Amino acid sequence: MSSSSSAAAVNSPPVAKKVKHIMELFGDVRVDNYYWLRDDSRSDQDVITYLRQENSYTDFVMSGTKQLEQQLFAEMRGRIKEDDISAPLRKGPFYYYTRTLEGKEYVQYCRRPIPNAEAPTSVHDIMPTGPDAPPEHVILDENVMAQPHDYYSIGAFKVSPNQKLVAYAEDTKGDEIYTVYVIDAETQAAVGKPLTGITSFISWAGNESLVYITMDETLRPDKVWLHKLGTDQSDDSCLYHEKDDMFSLDLQASESEKFLFVASESKTTRFVFYIDVSTPEDGLKVLTPRVVGIDTSVSHRGSHFFIIRRSDEFFNSELLACPVDNTSATTMLIPHRESIKIQDMQLFADHLVVYERENGLSKITAFHLPAVDEPLKGLKGGQTVDLIDPIYDVEPIESLFSSSILRFSYSSLRTPSSVYDHDMNSGISVLKKIETVLGGFDSSNYTTERKWATASDGTKIPISIVYKKNLVKLDGSDPLLLYGYGSYEICLDPGFNASRLSLIDRGFIFAIAHIRGGGEMGRQWYENGKLLKKKSTFTDFIACAEYLIEQKYCSKEKLCIEGRSAGGLLIGSVLNMRPDLFKAAVAGVPFVDVVTTMLDPTIPLTTSEWEEWGDPRKEEFYFYMKSYSPVDNVKAQKYPNILVTAGLNDPRVLYSEPAKFVAKLRDTKTDDNILLFKCELGAGHFSKSGRFEKLQEDAFTYAFVMKALNMIPALVSGEE
């Protein structure tokens, strides 16, 4: 640290200079004294110096917890089986999987030949290993690739249909702008030149072509391209340009591998084109037309496309099919239901699998389809897959289309991440892989439950809770960490996180508030927590906190809260509204300068976000958004202990938003509680890229929470 005097130890809270910046709209004047903290080039010395001072002050305040932080990190790392492989997936004549190695941050992408690839697949298949098995081949080792970089992430890894080539997308900054490389799967030799400035949306169209998506200067995915291997990127043909800046493109392949689907979506509308992979040069054809308020997602099997369609009227979606050669002739397979949301589907040679959500939980149903040459008139007698915990998280993962085996991932707050193969003919599920949790973990020592808080308007809000049976008293004296998100219809399902055990095994209760704005209870749960109803997200969270106190899970003195990104907006808002309710708060990469950001269409994501938060260029939205925007509502009042984090290269939430929030809090608040700002100078929105580096951040966060609760163990004499 001695190289720069400005970054020397800072043992009092940094004071950001004030430069008056006046903004006026609808006769309303806002003064932002910290507007200068936004520097898009990320090179202004005053800004960097201030960020370094904040980091230095954070180091100073947390210096006494270093030992605890290291202990937490050692525990978290100690639970991980460092040398491990993922559940192998059959594709063509190979098993594909990833491998992690002792002491290494990143994964290897591997494959092995299947000894008898012609034999039918079974849920009991096991990839042979050992000296007599076909040898493992490492296609790509991220550990080697990451060496020259501070940050390294592979956003896509796609094997060509003939299994001979691999295309992968690499980000070495954290800004989510990728370079795509094509290599020979056996020799790793480069095939052609890399493609630069790409998103992670890439797909093979046959063995000789790639389809990919690029972004505009606001990082909005807006163009689809066709690249023929061996030709120059400058010769690639643009298949579609989405000019409407409310819409973004995405790309996926059908499970049958016969079609690629390009979708253009806003927050309320989604329409889809298809590309026949056997003739990609024919370009895009319309599958579902662009109709405002209609959202479609699609797949394919045999002579039919399958379509999940949502509208204002059919808000929880319906499922239809249409012939490939007559897309307007649709057949209803599952009609809309008010209490069950169709979330996703997966297609197989003989089956259709539907992921649905009812009463806050996902369920999986498998239907047998008629033979490909028979008419598809409807669905009969689906089989629901049995799951073990009362509350859980279940997600689709890639399966083998030609088989009758559905693969899904499953976990709960007490069940480590598991991969199951489910035979859709016999109904048998076989556990293929469960995350090993070292250190004597036993799931039966933990209790997981679902409770319901009552919101101010009478709505019941689900809360998921986990704790260790023999450690908690449930008399109001237990420490509790309440986590929330509540935006974009994202479902914060109760899944497993081994790092969390470092809190739970110290007597913490961990809870998730499934507040409106998320999608846990169906589409309307989201609709009732966005735009001019956004504040229900915050009041729901406060209602959950009050319920947990009332039911003696904790007290105000023991209640800590955490959220990231849009969940950081949640934390900022509830801190301004009810600072008396919490002891400590963690706001990760928080979206806290809502009005100023949403008034600036040059910032990534802004235009498409108007359908989520509202467009403050309209008066009604301006005043409503201003009434909850955290930066605009910091008051002279007592706040709890607060940790705010940011990433300098974050393209989703500008680092200057959390920086302003902290500067304004420092200037305004009337308490002496801890306020820390930690800005990662080398990472983006998703923090550091290595698996152990990420744990370092968890360890720091938990150490902060324990410090705020006065739970730091006394140091042994003789140590500092």
UniProtKB/TrEMBL annotation:
It comes from the Eukaryota. Residues 496-710 form the Peptidase S9 prolyl oligopeptidase catalytic domain. Residues 13-431 form the Peptidase S9A N-terminal domain. Belongs to the peptidase S9A family. One of its GO terms (molecular function) is serine-type endopeptidase activity. This is Prolyl endopeptidase. It holds the Pfam family Peptidase_S9_N. It comes from Rhizophora mucronata. InterPro entries: AB_hydrolase_fold (IPR029058), Pept_S9A_N (IPR023302), Peptidase_S9_cat (IPR001375), Peptidase_S9A (IPR002470), Serine_Peptidase_S9A (IPR051543). Keywords: Hydrolase, Protease, Serine protease. Serine peptidase whose precise substrate specificity remains unclear. Does not cleave peptides after a arginine or lysine residue. Regulates trans-Golgi network morphology and sorting by regulating the membrane binding of the AP-1 complex. May play a role in the regulation of synaptic vesicle exocytosis. Its EC number is 3.4.21.-. GO terms for cellular component: cytosol. It is an enzyme of class 3 (hydrolase). It catalyses: Hydrolysis of Pro-|-Xaa >> Ala-|-Xaa in oligopeptides. One of its GO terms (biological process) is proteolysis.
